[in-house]
C-alpha cells in the first residue's frame, strides 16, 4: 500500500539507506506494508529524560555564546530519518512539529540527498549570485518550471519575487504594496523634488504615512516592519518600536463549528465591520491610510485560529472596494500541509489576492503577485542576493516528490483521518481537550489550560513524540507531508495514554 | 610565486579543473608564475556587446515574471572560474565587483566545491533545522571553531547570533539593542501589565519610541527598520514609510587627504557635534531617545566614504557617554577585503563596539555582540531558522583558505599596489578621475561627473572588466580575496586606455 503511495521513496530507498540509515534495521518487505516509511523505525523510543545528559551538556556550551532559552534538545541529523528526529542522547522521536513546520519531506529524504550529490547542483551552491544583477543562465527557466509551474503558483499570480525567509518576504511584499499604492495616488506623475529629498531623511511626503492592516493574534515575522503586523505574544514585541498601524479583530469561533453557525457568522460580521471602521479611521482621522491588509489563512503561531471562506471572501471585497491590496501570508500554510498547495485555495475567492508570501516548506522565501504590482523602477525591491538558487534546487525536488507521491492527496486523507480520531478523543476527554480544528494535517486542538497544554507537550516528549504548542492553550500538528495514518496512530496512542493518566 | 601565495589552489587544482574548467586551456607550469590563478584565462575576452544576444533574450523572458531593470547580464556559473565571470554569450570578464562584494574566493573555488562534494555536508544541507529550538549536535562546536575562533571574531565580542542576510542581521541587532536599552531603563523591574498589553497593539509604553541614529549616505539594508537607517539613494526609500529616527552628517573629506588634514579634522568635529546635538534633540524635544548608533566603517553603497580612526574613536566615546550602543555594520567591509578581518580593526577603538553585523563574504548573516547585550529572555530575538548551517559550512572553508593562503596579507599587498597605481593614474588624468581612496582592495575613485562614471563602467565592460559604481560619481573595486597584482594590471590597462580615449 505504501509502495503505491510513495513510489519514489521505495525506488530510492537503497540510496537513502546507504547514507543515513545506520541505526535502524529495516527490510524491503516491511516497506511494502502500511507501516513506517523506508528506513524509519517502527515506533519512537525514549532512552533518557528530554533533554538528556548530552543535550544538557551541549546546551551549557551554547549558552556561553548566545541566549538559548528556546532550545529543547540537540539533534543528530545524520541519524534522523523520515518522520523521526533522533537526538544526541539516542532518543528517537516521532516529529509532528518538523522544525516549526519547515521540513516538507522529513529528515534525509533520498530525493533531497540525491539532488545535493549532483555535482551540477554543487556548482550552484558554490556560486551564489546577486540574482538581481547577474542571474545564472537557468534562472528564468527555473522560475518558470518550479515556482511558476501550473499547480504550484497560485492561479492568476504570474509574477514572482524571490527572497530568503518569511520575515523578509513579508517586508518586501509590504514595500511592493506601498509602491503600488503610491503610484496609484500619483496618477502617472513623476516623483517630485520634495518627495525625493524628504525620503532621504525619513520624512513625508517622500516617506509617506501609509499603513498595513493586520489582525489580533497574527504572526507575520519579527523584523521591524513585519513585527508591526505581528500580535500573537507580547514577548515577541515588548521593548521594540513599532509603526502605528491598524489592527482588526480576527474571528474567534465557538467549537464545534456545526453547533455554532449563527454565532460564528455574527463573529465574522463583527470583525469585518471593524476592518471597515479601521480603514476609515486611519484614512480620515489618523491620516495613515491603509495600503494593504495582511492575513494568514489560518493564524498559526497565534493558536491555529481559523476563519470561514465567507470571511475571506468578504474581506477581499472590502479591500477591493477601498483600493487596498490583500496579502495572504502562506509562510506556514503554504506548500501542501492543508491538502492544497496554498491554503487560500480552500476559500473560493472572487479573484486572486494581490500578493501571496511563502517560505518554510518552500525552502526559499518570496512572494507571488499580480502583474499590476510589478514595481515600475529597478532597485526599489532589491537586495544583494534576492533569494538563493541553492534553495530553489531543493524546492524543485520537493515539488517533484509532492507530485509523484501524491502528497497533497496524502495530506488530505491523513488529515481527515487524524481530525476524525481527535474529535472522537475530544468527546472522550472533553474536560481536557476541545476545539479540534484543521485542514489537511494542519491540525490543532485546545487544552483546558495553558498549564495542561505544557504538561501534555512535555509528556508527549517522554512518550517519544516531538510536538509543539501555539497560542496560549493549543497543541499544533505540523508533520511532514509524508506523515501517514500509521504515524497518526502512534501519536494518538501516546496522547490517549496521557489524557487517561 | 603564486604557488607560495596560494598553496591550496595549486593543491586542489586538478579537482577544480575536473568539474569546471572546460573552456580554458591552462597548464600547471603557467600556474607557477605570477599570472592567472589555476584554471583562469590569461585575460578577459569579449565576443559580443554586453549584454549579448543570449543575455538579451533571457532578459526578455525574465521580464515577463519580474522587474528586471537592474539585471546587467546572465552568467554561466559552471564556466566562470576564479576572478573571471563568464556570461551566456561567451564573454569572459575580469570581475572586480564579485556579486556586490559577496564572493570571497571567486568562482568555483575548489575548496568550496570540495566541501559541497562531502556527503556529510550534504546531510547538513538536506536537514535545515530550526536552530533556536533543535540545533544539531555540532552546532556549539561549529560556532566556536568557525565564527568565534580567535582571529575571526572581533576581539572582545564573545556572543554570536546567526541570521540569513545583511538586512535581517541589522534588524535583529536593532532589536537586541532596544531590549538592552529598555532593560537598563527598567533597572531590573519586571514588565508591567501596561507594557505587555500596549505592545500587542503597537502602542507605547510596550512599543517604546526609541530610535537608532544613522548617517547621511549610509546603507544598512532595505527592510523597514534597516531602511529607516539607509540614506544612500532616494530610489531605495521613496514611497516607503520610515521611522522618524535621527540622521547625522557623515564626514565628507577633501582629497588628497595629506593635503587637507586640517579641513578634514574640522569636518570630523562638525559631524560629531551634530551627533551630540541630535542625541539631545531626540531625547528632550522629540522624546524618541537614541538607543543605538549604526555606522559603516566605510560607507560603501553611498560612495565609499571614509572617516578617520579619530572620528570613530570619538564617536564611540560619545555613545558610551550617553549609554548608547555602537553598532558597526561590517556587512560589506567584513571578511577580509580591507586587509583585516574587520575594517573597524583599523581604528584602534578604546574598547570593542557593542555590536558588529556581517553577511556577504561571510556567507551566513548575523552579529557579534558584547555579553551584556545578551537578551534576558528567550524568543525575543528569534525566528524559524536563525541562520543556516549550510552557509556556515561554506564559511568554514572560506576561513580555512583565507588563513592557509594568507589572503588578508594578500588583500593588503594587492590593495597597496592598486591604490598606488590608481593615484598615479589620477595624477595623469586629473580632469577625469580623483579622490582615490581605500583600505586593502576595498578601493574606489571618483569621476568628474555621473555621466563619465557611467560611461567608464560601460566601456570597462566592453574591455572585459565587470566593475560596479557606488554613490553618484564613484567606481568601486570589490574583487575576491584571491585578486592579485596580475589582475590589477589588467584592470588598470583597461582603465588607462579608456581615460586616454
From TrEMBL, chains A, B:
GO terms for biological process: gamma-aminobutyric acid catabolic process. Transmembrane segments: none annotated. One of its GO terms (molecular function) is pyridoxal phosphate binding. Its EC number is 2.6.1.19, 2.6.1.22. It holds the Pfam family Aminotran_3. InterPro entries: 4NH2But_aminotransferase_euk, Aminotrans_3, PyrdxlP-dep_Trfase, PyrdxlP-dep_Trfase_major, PyrdxlP-dep_Trfase_small. The keyword Transferase applies. GO terms for cellular component: mitochondrion. Its cofactor is pyridoxal 5'-phosphate. It comes from the Eukaryota. Coiled coil: none annotated. CDD domains: OAT_like (cd00610). Belongs to the class-III pyridoxal-phosphate-dependent aminotransferase family. This is (S)-3-amino-2-methylpropionate transaminase. It comes from Neodiprion lecontei.
Amino acid at each position: 500500500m505504501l509502495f503505491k503511495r510513495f513510489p519514489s521513496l521505495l525506488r530510492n530507498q537503497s540510496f537513502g539507506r546507504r547514507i543515513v540509515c545506520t541505526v535502524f534495521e529495516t527490510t524491503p518487505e516491511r516497506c511494502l506494508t502500511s507501516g513506517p516509511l523506508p528506513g524509519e523505525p517502527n515506533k519512537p523510543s525514549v532512552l533518557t529524560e528530554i533533554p538528556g545528559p548530552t543535550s544538557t551538556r551541549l546546551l551549557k556550551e551554547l549558552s556561553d555564546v548566545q541566549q538559548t532559552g528556546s532550545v529543547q534538545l540537540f539533534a543528530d541529523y545524520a541519524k534522523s530519518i523520515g518522520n523521526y528526529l533522533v537526538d544526541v542522547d539516542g532518543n528517537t522521536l516521532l516529529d509532528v512539529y518538523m522544525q516549526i513546520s519547515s521540513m516538507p519531506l522529513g529528515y534525509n529524504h533520498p530525493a533531497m540527498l540525491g539532488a545535493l550529490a549532483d555535482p551540477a547542483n554543487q556548482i550552484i551552491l558554490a556560486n551564489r549570485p546577486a540574482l538581481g544583477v547577474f542571474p545564472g543562465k537557468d534562472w528564468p527557466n527555473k522560475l518558470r518550471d518550479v515556482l511558476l509551474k501550473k499547480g504550484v503558483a497560485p492561479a492568476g499570480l504570474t509574477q514572482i519575487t524571490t527572497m530568503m525567509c518569511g520575515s523578509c518576504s513579508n517586508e518586501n511584499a509590504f514595500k511592493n504594496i506601498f509602491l503600488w499604492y503610491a503610484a496609484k495616488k500619483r496618477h502617472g506623475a513623476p516623483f517630485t523634488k520634495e518627495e525625493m529629498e524628504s525620503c532621504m531623511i525619513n520624512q513625508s511626503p517622500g516617506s509617506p504615512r501609509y499603513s498595513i492592516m493586520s489582525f489580533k493574534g497574527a504572526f507575520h515575522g519579527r523584523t521591524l516592519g513585519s513585527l508591526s503586523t505581528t500580535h500573537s505574544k507580547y514577548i515577541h514585541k515588548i521593548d521594540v518600536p513599532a509603526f502605528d498601524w491598524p489592527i482588526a479583530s480576527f474571528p474567534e469561533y465557538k467549537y464545534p463549528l456545526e453547533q455554532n453557525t449563527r454565532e460564528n457568522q455574527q463573529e465574522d460580521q463583527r470583525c469585518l465591520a471593524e476592518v471597515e471602521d479601521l480603514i476609515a479611521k486611519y484614512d480620515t482621522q489618523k491620516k495613515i491610510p491603509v495600503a494593504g491588509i495582511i492575513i494568514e489563512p489560518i493564524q498559526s503561531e497565534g493558536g491555529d485560529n481559523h476563519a470561514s471562506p465567507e470571511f475571506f471572501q468578504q474581506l477581499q471585497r472590502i479591500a477591493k472596494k477601498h483600493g487596498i491590496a490583500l496579502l495572504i501570508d502562506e509562510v506556514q500554510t503554504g506548500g501542501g500541509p492543508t491538502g492544497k498547495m496554498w491554503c487560500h485555495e480552500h476559500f473560493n475567492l472572487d479573484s486572486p489576492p494581490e500578493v501571496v508570501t511563502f517560505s518554510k516548506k518552500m525552502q526559499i522565501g518570496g512572494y507571488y503577485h499580480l502583474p499590476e504590482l510589478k514595481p515600475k523602477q529597478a532597485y526599489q525591491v532589491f537586495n544583494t542576493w534576492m533569494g538563493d538558487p541553492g534553495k530553489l534546487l531543493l524546492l524543485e525536488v520537493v515539488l517533484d516528490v509532492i507530485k509523484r507521491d501524491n502528497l497533497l492527496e496524502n495530506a488530505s486523507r491523513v488529515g481527515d483521518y487524524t481530525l476524525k480520531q481527535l474529535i472522537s478523543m475530544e468527546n472522550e476527554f472533553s474536560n481536557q481537550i476541545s476545539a479540534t480544528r484543521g485542514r489537511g494535517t494542519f491540525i490543532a486542538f485546545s487544552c483546558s489550560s495553558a498549564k495542561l497544554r505544557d504538561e501534555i507537550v512535555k509528556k508527549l516528549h517522554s512518550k517519544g513524540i516531538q510536538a509543539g504548542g501555539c497560542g496560549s492553550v493549543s497543541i499544533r500538528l505540523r508533520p511532514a507531508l509524508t506523515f501517514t495514518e500509521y504515524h497518526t496512530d502512534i501519536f494518538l496512542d501516546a496522547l490517549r495514554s496521557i489524557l487517561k493518566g
